[in-house]
């Protein structure tokens, strides 16, 4: 991959950017958000390639088996305790985000990869916000009063909200919870 561009996909609460409570989402299941997240992470121009899907261990463990076996994703988990041997659907475990990004963006793995998504958890998000290779943040902004104890870092000072012709930015609702999709791109100098 010549010029590495990282993307984040995250859903968080409008009031405080909370995105987890324990190992679960703070809000009820949002089918529209799940569909958006899976379609975004799976979309490729070259059907012979996969998208790298980098998560932390807790995010990986919280994923359903259905999500883990998505054939369009090359899954890498950042962890110092999890071992990848014998774990179904997991391609590699590496100790930190830098090692994971390095692994998927250099041959021979990079030859198989079209895009690189950072999909959690909190520590990976904290590190990635300051990485100049992070170009886009796909946000599902969830409206409502829900408890959270894990929060997405402040990013608005480095990114601007942009419109995207393929993104439905209208207010959505599932299970009585309102949410809205947004795209943010890093400021360019």
Automatic annotation (TrEMBL):
Domain DHFR, chain residue ranges per copy: 1-186
Top-level enzyme category: oxidoreductase
Question: What InterPro entries does the database record attribute to this sequence?
Answer: DHFR, DHFR-like_dom_sf, DHFR_dom
**Name of the protein this chain belongs to:** dihydrofolate reductase
Q: Which domain of life is it from?
A: Eukaryota
What pathway annotation does it carry? Cofactor biosynthesis; tetrahydrofolate biosynthesis; 5,6,7,8-tetrahydrofolate from 7,8-dihydrofolate: step 1/1
Question: Does the entry feature the keyword NADP, yes or no?
Answer: yes
Q: What reaction is this protein's catalytic activity?
A: (6S)-5,6,7,8-tetrahydrofolate + NADP(+) = 7,8-dihydrofolate + NADPH + H(+)
Keyword annotations for this protein, in alphabetical order, are: NADP, One-carbon metabolism, Oxidoreductase
**Please, one GO biological process term?**
one-carbon metabolic process
This entry's Enzyme Commission designation comes to 1.5.1.3
GO MF annotations in UniProt: dihydrofolate reductase activity
The record, for CDD domains, names: DHFR (cd00209)
């Amino acid at each position: 991959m010549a010029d590495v561009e990282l993307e984040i996909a995250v859903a968080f609460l409008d009031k405080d950017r909370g995105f987890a409570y324990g190992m679960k989402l703070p809000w009820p299941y949002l089918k529209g958000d799940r569909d958006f997240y899976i379609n975004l992470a799976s979309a490729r121009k070259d059907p012979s390639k996969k998208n790298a899907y980098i998560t932390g261990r807790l995010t990986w463990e919280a994923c359903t088996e259905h999500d883990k076996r998505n054939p369009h994703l090359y899954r890498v988990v950042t962890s110092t305790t999890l071992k990848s041997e014998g774990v179904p659907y997991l391609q590699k475990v590496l100790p930190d985000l830098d090692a994971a990004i390095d692994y998927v963006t250099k041959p021979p793995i990079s030859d198989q990869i079209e895009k690189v998504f950072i999909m959690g958890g909190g520590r990976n998000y904290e590190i990635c916000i300051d990485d100049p290779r992070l170009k886009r943040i796909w946000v599902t902004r969830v409206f409502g009063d829900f408890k959270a104890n894990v929060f997405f870092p402040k990013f608005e000072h480095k990114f601007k909200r942009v419109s995207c012709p393929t993104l439905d930015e209208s207010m959505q609702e599932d299970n009585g919870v309102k949410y809205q999709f947004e795209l943010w791109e890093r400021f360019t100098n």
